[in-house]
Automatic annotation (TrEMBL):
Keywords: Oxidoreductase. Transmembrane segments: none annotated. One of its GO terms (cellular component) is cytosol. This is Predicted oxidoreductase. Residues 15-308 form the NADP-dependent oxidoreductase domain. Gene3D superfamilies: NADP-dependent oxidoreductase domain. GO terms for molecular function: oxidoreductase activity. It comes from the Bacteria.
Length: 339
């Protein structure tokens, strides 16, 4: 495993992140504690150090399992990320949301479940469209100054909010968001319209969740396997099947699994990207780790891009058409290296 810098920071994280939403057996699915330990062992033995969880994953069980595991490990080796926002009790109306009160309360509870004195990364989990972004960043900066978290990050939030937040943070001397967690895969490319260009501009690392689209891109639904995806999901329609068939074809050419191809595609898109890979079975996870040894050719990338292409809409398509097709900048545009 190689290491990358997370955003505009000096924090070194492994090139694949371990997602732990499946640690725990609540809701009738997931990995028990013993299996979760085995998965974390396999990850650490491969050089992985970047763990991703949240206060509400498996009603807090995910954090508890990680806390038990880290109690017998070198805590400083691991880069531990968790999230706050979602409701984790019914004791008061501020037990959810992005507000400062909930952030402080949630962090204290996460620290206890994780059996640690500090979090390496705290994500805002989901934008609530209520709390001012300056309240969020000031509170995260206070936690950083207190030594309870090391870095601020954000997830599932509109691009304009993240951009406003990092601009305010730069102006005020607060810690900026270093990572952006969003859904991104061959079946979900809409972040290419605003979120990913914004992340590139601010030097934010993208950490995609569901890079395998809930397993759809492994080809298991083409094989007739059943899963937890609802029948009406866009991961099971004609378009998703046609994209997955291209993934499977390329996997056969390379002699690797379709999951390796789908994961590697996210890593070769020209921006800082560390996909989050989750698993509830050790063999499944070990196969995902093989992604780091895969390289897609230009032709293979082109085939995947053509199969999964989306319309960027305005202004993305407008800029592309006017500047490239009509050569509106007198050839200058083509001679400038893009970010």
């Amino acid at each position: 495993m190689k290491y990358k810098l997370l955003g505009r920071s000096g924090l070194k994280v492994s090139e694949l992140c371990l997602g732990t939403m499946g640690f725990g057996t609540e809701a009738g699915w997931g990995a028990d504690a013993a299996t979760s330990f085995d998965i974390m062992d396999a990850y650490a033995n491969a050089g992985g150090n970047f763990l991703d969880t949240a206060n509400m994953y498996k009603l807090g069980t995910s954090e508890k399992i990680i806390g038990d595991y880290l109690s017998n490990q070198d805590r400083d080796y691991f880069v531990l990320a968790t999230k706050y926002t979602l409701k984790d009790n019914t004791t008061n109306p501020n037990a959810s949301g992005n507000n400062r009160k909930n952030m402080m309360r949630s962090v204290e509870r996460s620290l206890k479940r994780l059996k640690t004195d500090f979090l390496d990364i705290l994500y805002l989990h989901i934008w609530d469209d209520i709390t001012p972004v300056d309240e969020v960043l000031r509170a995260m900066d206070d936690l950083i100054r207190q030594g309870k978290i090391n870095y601020a990050a954000i997830s599932d939030t509109p691009a304009w909010v993240v951009a406003k937040g990092n601009t305010l943070a730069e102006l005020m001397g607060w810690s900026q968001f270093v990572a952006l967690q969003i859904e991104y895969s061959l079946l979900a490319r809409t972040p290419e319209r605003e979120l990913i260009p914004m992340a590139k501009h601010f030097g934010i690392t993208v950490t995609p969740w569901a890079p395998l689209a809930g397993g759809a891109l492994t080809g298991k639904y083409l094989r007739g396997e059943k899963g937890r995806i609802k029948p009406e999901s866009n991961r099971l329609n004609e378009r998703s099947e046609s994209i997955t068939k291209v993934v499977v074809d390329i996997a056969e050419e390379l002699g690797v699994s379709p999951g390796n191809v789908a994961l590697q595609w996210t890593r070769q898109q020209g921006f800082s990207c560390i996909p989050i890979i989750g698993a509830t079975k050790v063999d499944q996870f070990i196969d995902n780790l093989k992604t780091i040894d895969v390289t897609l050719s230009d032709d293979q990338l082109k085939r995947l891009d053509e199969a999964s292409a989306i319309q960027l809409g305005f202004p993305g398509d407008f800029f592309k058409e006017e500047a490239v097709r009509n050569n509106s900048f007198g050839g200058f545009y083509d001679r400038v290296e893009k970010r």
